[in-house]
Amino acid sequence: MTRFFVMLFVVLGWATVALAQPYALDVLPSEAERVTDPRSGAELVYLTTDPADDVNLYFHERSWLADGSLILFNSNRDAGGLMGYLAATGELVRFNSETGSLTGATAASEGARIWAMRGDEVLELDVTIDSSVSPSSVTLDERLVCALPRASGRTALSESADGKRLAVGLTGLPDGGDPAVFVIDVESGVFRVLCRVGETPGYGGHVQWSRTDPYTLSFAGQFPRLQIVDIRDGVPQSAYAQLKNELVTHESWWVNDQMLFSGGLHPEPTEDSHVKVLDPKSGQVRVIGVGAWWPNGEDEAVAKQNYWHASGSPDGRWIAADNWHGDITLIEADTTRSHTLTFGHRVYGGGAHPHVGWDRLGKQVIFSSHKRGDVNVCVATIPEGWSR
Fold it and tell me: Average of pLDDT values for 174-179?
């Protein structure tokens, strides 16, 4: 990329910071259904029961507002898109932006705020909820942070640990060059290309910031998969010495600047996939959730014993992991003991993955469920006796 093109990006980012008038959101009746998992005793709340496909945000994005008042999800129902669940009433909220649908959303680390994109625009959304009236009143204050270069593909937004910056990965940029990771200053709207990602290591998206280090983010390479970048030098570095044919997938940042990922040494289709904890600074890796493999194992049976997505609770006490059958397992961080929280939320061989994520307090997890015959958003509460 030429110096002129980089400078053009910066100028555009600086010039587009703007405020819009607050507007009211559509509030819909509750669809919530509460059940108890018959095997674990965990309370499950299906936030949605509409026949449309409703899915939670991706497992390394923040679904809950900081105060827990609203849970974000996406829907393909008519006039759906980005939606929310009001924790106080069970009502649903449609984020019906008047000038286009909202994508790439994640809740901010602090305040009743959401980061989202509308086309190439990056938005800061402040949510005001009044549940003393019926139906509840929900209004949105919208600030245009910046307008990024037009791109054909985008990751979700990710917020830095100190809340001062956002990151996003873009493909299909106007200059026709390699995919790029952009960093955006939240206050000023100034943005810049942090790095361009060519054939080595390749680009697979999943741009996300460390939860504890405001200068470090990661993205998925094609090989090696785990790539981290210090924003002060912009040079991608491999975080894990992945072997050829080794499964390394679905990474997420956790406490103490650690990363979680799933993987093993037996290749697909009957792969083993453990949950692993990586310290990128030392390179030390340990298995915290044990998968399994055996000769001539059937795909469906092997998949029952292995993990796919893994995310850690913000208090560092738990890791949640799912499998291809939609079983949700909690792993104690200090002892590695595992507890299956709920079972059978996916039919093996098809359908949305659960990709389980966490609330802000480490007491609930959120995932996509096929238990009711279509895809719905479900929240499970950790039984009281499991927390120490």
Answer: 96
